[in-house]
Amino acid sequence: MALMVVDGRLGPALAAAAERAEAALDRLLPSGDDAQSRLYEAMRYACLGGGKRLRAFLVIQSAALFHVAPRAADRVAASVEMLHAYSLVHDDLPAMDNDDLRRGKPSCHKAFDEATAILAGDALQARAFEVLAEPDTHPDPAVRCELVASLGQAAGARGMAGGQMIDLLAEAHKLTEAEVTRLQMLKTARLMTWCCEAGAILGKAPAPLRHALAGYGRDLGLAFQIADDILDELGTLEEIGKTPKKDAAAGKATLVSLLGLERARAQARMLAEQAVGHLDPFGPPADTLRDLVGFVVTRRT
């Protein structure tokens, strides 16, 4: 498989998904001039007008495989973007990764203040689950309950938050290759896996197809994180929209630091091949998801 976009379908699909997610976020995020208006402003600052919206794209594309209503897919896509934004707001705090830039603009705690950023992250996480639980997301309450429970697992102590805990500990403890892979599985790949599964949950897909999408999301997420680490090593602030070489400065081990650039790139390519293989049961309708794999491992932003 040539890991590249072989035609022009991926760019328009990414742009369309980003536009749909942005519109849903604008509609679903709170606004107003009441006593909480500063909190609303910080939530919207953290969520709107930036990012590649890859997680939203995965939700929308996986849902399309099962002919899910676009409005339902858009709500779930917005929900996961809220949860992702919360994680970035908290990751950037001085107590965590201590980064002043995010998506090419001041981090939320720099644009507002630390207390407001913490509350904005808290409120974004809460709103993400609230949206999933609302009847407009799906008429079947069992589907809504499964979305809520599975996202909680992906985001909690055995998922994204657990991965961040390992990441913080990595500043004082040199991780092995296996430990770094586990960190990346929890912190990055677990949420991407959920994004792919979410479409199958919305579509009440059979277990084999759901498992295939989960495998795709897992391997894509791991490849994405290796590419991110390579960008952190080689990219500029203008390209990546945040401070480069942060992990190296903090003494954190990554697969790039452990394996070297070429072996890390080879690992990303291997994971990309595996990700594409998981899509075999879906045939041509999954071609845009296949194209995404090439973009993820060769991106410069």
From TrEMBL:
Pfam family, any one: polyprenyl_synt
GO biological process: terpenoid biosynthetic process
Alphabetical list of InterPro entries matching this protein: Polyprenyl_synt, Polyprenyl_synt_CS, Prenyl_diphosphate_synthase
The keyword DNA damage belongs to this UniProt entry's keyword annotation: no
Cofactor(s) in the UniProt record: Mg(2+)
Protein species of origin: Elioraea tepida
Family (UniProt): Belongs to the FPP/GGPP synthase family.
PROSITE patterns, per the entry: POLYPRENYL_SYNTHASE_1, POLYPRENYL_SYNTHASE_2
Top-level taxon in the UniProt lineage: Bacteria
Keywords: Isoprene biosynthesis, Magnesium, Metal-binding, Transferase
GO molecular function, one term: prenyltransferase activity
Protein name, per record: Polyprenyl synthetase family protein
Keyword Metal-binding: yes
Record PANTHER family: FARNESYL DIPHOSPHATE SYNTHASE (PTHR43281)
